[in-house]
Design a protein that fits this description.
mainly alpha, two-stranded antiparallel ribbon, 12 helices, 2 strands
């Protein structure tokens, strides 16, 4: 048979076609340059605002957009501003508490849906997706009304005082973070080989031992991914937090949004850069942890 794509040869016992290895996945000619230009525009669209934000956070001038010289003044003001430091500390506490609770409940919810069959499972699955589907404003109004009606019930719990606002923030963030954690963990569970759990049971492992030594190590990347997503959503949330926060319990996202009402200043740029750096540090830490886990499994 003539032609490059029509000629065949035998290699390692398999019939292979010449020219198949070079597929149309690699664009040629004008298409290559168009795709490269498109990629540059996409990256510029995503990262140019971040570069501009970081650049003007070092601006000496109080007027945003007019460069007058390099200065660390706004970062110094950021460190000396007690209100910002307090709001960051509140965000950190809410983020840690809500993430821990969301990871536990979200993982349990994913396991209950993927590994068991019970009455009302489909209804529970549908309700679990609601925080992902409904608008943030609707979620915020629901949480505000719920806490207004159930405040006495929660305040009856020892150590809980919804009037302070911190507990409301934690519970509100847990309410929407559970769904995202559950989705990530379920994706990991869907690709998990159930026969390994059955093999553990054949070796006389009880349910907890099979979960602890077989299931959990395999779904741990999904659990960590869900935790990272919960941390990001908790730090980023403005709408729900602004509806349920109280005086003295204002997270940094709501505080920055309140600063914007007074006008944009380089101080807001400095605060935003610090938050961005913290988020990037979390991403890098998760990648390093995942690589370390993969290398240990390889050994």
């Amino acid at each position: 048979m003539g032609g490059t794509c029509d000629s065949w040869h035998l290699q390692d016992g398999f019939v292979m076609a010449k020219g198949v290895a070079r597929s149309t996945a690699e664009p040629m000619g004008l298409s290559r340059w168009l795709l490269r230009g498109h990629s540059v525009l996409v990256y510029a669209f995503f990262y140019a605002p971040i570069i501009v934000l970081a650049f003007y956070s070092f601006n000496k001038s109080q007027i945003v957009g007019r460069w007058t010289g390099f200065s660390l003044r706004w970062y110094s003001d950021f460190l000396e501003n007690e209100n910002i430091q307090e709001s960051i500390w509140i965000s950190v506490k809410v983020c840690i508490a809500s993430t821990l609770i969301s990871v536990v409940l979200g993982t349990l919810a994913a396991l209950s849906i993927e590994r068991f069959r019970w009455w009302g499972q489909k209804a529970f699955d549908a309700v679990l997706y609601l925080p992902i589907i409904i608008p943030d404003v609707t979620m915020a109004v629901m949480m505000m009304v719920f806490f207004g009606e159930a405040a006495d019930l929660f305040n009856a719990i020892p150590g809980v005082d919804l009037g302070q606002g911190l507990e409301k923030l934690v519970l509100s963030h847990v309410a929407f973070n559970i769904s995202f954690v559950s989705v990530v963990v379920r994706a990991r569970l869907a690709n998990l080989d159930a026969t390994m759990e059955e093999a553990a049971a054949d070796l006389y492992a009880n349910g907890w031992q099979a979960f602890r030594y077989v299931t959990l190590p395999q779904i741990m990347p999904g659990v960590l991914g869900g935790a990272l997503l919960a941390i990001t959503l908790s730090l980023d949330d403005v709408v729900v937090s602004s509806f349920v926060s109280a005086v003295g319990a204002t997270p940094v996202s709501v505080y920055v949004f309140g600063m914007l009402r007074k006008g944009v200043s380089p101080l807001i740029n400095a605060v935003s850069v610090v938050i961005l750096a913290a988020s990037m540090a979390l991403v890098v830490a998760s990648l390093v942890l995942e690589r370390a886990t993969s290398s240990q499994k390889g050994k």
